[in-house]
What we know:
Layout: E1 12-13, E2 22-23
Antiparallel strand pairs: 1-2
Amino acid sequence: xxxxxxxxxxxxxxxxxxxxxxxxxxxxxxxxxxxxxxxxx
Length: 41
């Protein structure tokens, strides 16, 4: 499982913004540790 999609988000324009602000939604999951992939020697 790749972890890259979990940290890349599309920033979208905020409706009604006067200065062109952008926003993205990030879901934060607490108390979860990603599993490390075994390294091949």
